[in-house]
Structure formats: C-alpha cells, structure tokens
Amino acid sequence: MGKKALYNKVNKVELKESLAAEPFDRITASFYRYVKIDEPELFRDDLYQKWDMLNIFGRVYVSKEGINSQISVPEKHWKKFIAQLNKIEELKNIHIKQALQDGPSFYKLTIKVREELVAYGIPEDTYDMNETGNHLSSKEYNKAIEDPNTVIVDMRNYYESEIGRFEDALIPDVETSKELLPEVKGILKGKENDPVLLYCTGGIRCEKASAYLIKHGFQNVNQLQGGIIQYAHDVKAQGLESRFKGKNFVFDDRLGERVTDDILSSCHLCNSSCDRHTDCKNDACHILFIQCDQCSEELSGCCSIECRDFASLPILEQKQLRKDPARVVSKTFFDSRIKPKLIQ
Ligand SMILES: [Zn+2]
Ligand SMILES: [Zn+2]
C-alpha cells in the first residue's frame, strides 16, 4: 500500500503541475439527475471516452438511479460538451450549475459506478422519486424563510454546515448520511403540516430526502433548487440578500466557496476565528479539519505535533512505520467536533 500511496502522490503533483501550465481557462460545473440508467457500467465507459477526449476533469458517480457530476471543462470545449450531453437520452437538457470561479478544482477524471447516488441507505419502499418536494428558486426560498412556521433543515454533514449555513437552520446531529433521514424525520415530528425547507450543496441530497419525508406524511416539503451553489450565484447575479452565511463546502480541491464574509467556525487547534478546511499533510493521516494560518505554520500544515514529526521523516522510514498496525490512523473525514485522531 505504501508504494501505491507514494506513486499517487508523485502523480498528483505532476497532474497539478500540468493543470497549472494549461494555456486555457476551465469552467467548474456540476449537474445531477435521477434517471433510470439500465447499464451503468456501459454508460460510464461511454461517458469516460467522450469526456476524456474533451480533456474534462472531475468526479462523477453513475448508478442505476442516475448521475451526479462535478467537473472542470476547458472553456474552449464547453459548447461541444453541451452538444454531446444533449445527444445522450438520459442527460438531455440537463440543468448545469457553474461554480463561482475560485481556483483549480479537479486535475483528473474519475467516473465511478455506485449502488446509490446518495448513500442514505434507506429501503426502496420508503421513498418515491416521482413525488419530491417543491423546487423553490433562491428568491422564493428567501420569501419562504419569512414565514414564522417554516422549519429549515440542513441536509449535509456537520463538517459542511460548520463553515456555512442558512440562519436558523436545524443542523441534524448525526455522524453519517445513513443516520440522517430517520433523524430528520424525528426532528420534524409534529410539524407534518408546516412548511419544511430543505437545502444541500447542489440539490441532489434534498431530492431524495424530500421524497422520503413526503412518503412519511409531510405535506409541505420544499427544497432549494440547485442548492447553495445556485443560491450563491443568484445572490450575486440578482442582488438578493444572502440568508446563507459563511462558506459553501465543496468536494474538490477548493474545499469551499465563500458566499458571505461571515466566519462561523474556529480553528480546531487554537479556537481562533477561521473557516478554512485543510487536510493534514501527513500522508498517513490526511484528516480533514479547520486550521488557522498560524497553527498551519507551526505544524507545517499537519494536524498535530505527532503528524508533523512523522511527515518530516524520510519517506522510506515513513513507509516502514506505516506497516506497523499500532500506528494506523483514521483516513476518513472526521466529525470535526472530535479532536483529530493522532498517531498512537
Ligand atoms: Zn489555530
Ligand atoms: Zn494528521
């Protein structure tokens, strides 16, 4: 495993360098659609071939229930890319959201086949994708917030809402997506007739969540069309008041798009005001956490003294130590309320 990690690292550096050297601009964009895809593997292979030719980068998931894409498209190929999409039956006239440009996002293309588009882990008979919540535009969403009976629910993970969220939104207290929907249903108990406003990053999680809530008796379920990504756009383009404060966490190298100047979170190490996620520079750790400039400097971008000392060892020695099971550290996104797991 050590070998592979090393190879990937070198590769990643090279890929990033070649991205930086590109003499053209890129557009970061995202789209999703719940649509029946009979043979996800074939669909994936076809898409990969087409997009690779256009030099498109990104992270894409294909499943029998649809597609979810975050991509970076060379500006000069944008028109061709759209024309191609419209020739694919399942993707015709799909709504595409462009990101607020904020630095390089992806440097390679991966398209993976998955069981579910969003890993809620809920049985198929607990939702019906033909009955989803009303889609509200950003303007309509702002208006709906004014209703005192409205309940706003953040459908994302804690580490996402930590750096940015709608004012007065309920933040479900769960560790994984699998616990999220039953928890939200519980929180909303007794509010079956009240307006419920859901939101997430780009809309895909609300699509299924709203179907689940409707199936469980909620009468007035609404979702933010295009998610926070679209909302941030509309705030700028239409001069709307942003009821979303802080940063929108995004799942690419940028790790966040600033929506307003408010800083809602603090450095996980020293508690000073900060909303910048980083991943620990120790290759055996890579924990995602919030770190201020000063702590980053003191720890050379690592989450702890232990990681900094480990990362400063020669690569060969690191590889040797990583084989020792007693030193294995968590590589998963951690719940940011818990201090990072250190090397034991
Ligand atoms: Zn700090
Ligand atoms: Zn670390």
Outline of the structure:
The protein contains 11 helices and 14 strands. With 344 residues, the chain is of the alpha/beta class.
What does this structure look like?
The chain has 344 residues and is α/β, with parallel strands linked by helices. It folds into 3 domains: 99 residues, Alpha-Beta Plaits, CATH 3.30.70; 115 residues, Rhodanese-like domain (Oxidized Rhodanese, domain 1), CATH 3.40.250.10; 80 residues, no CATH class. Helices cover 32% and strands 18% of the residues. The N terminus and C terminus are likely disordered. The structure holds zinc ion (2 copies).
Keywords:
single chain, 344 residues, alpha/beta, Alpha-Beta Plaits, Oxidized Rhodanese, domain 1, 3 domains, 5-stranded mixed sheet, 11 helices, disordered N terminus, disordered C terminus, binds zinc ion
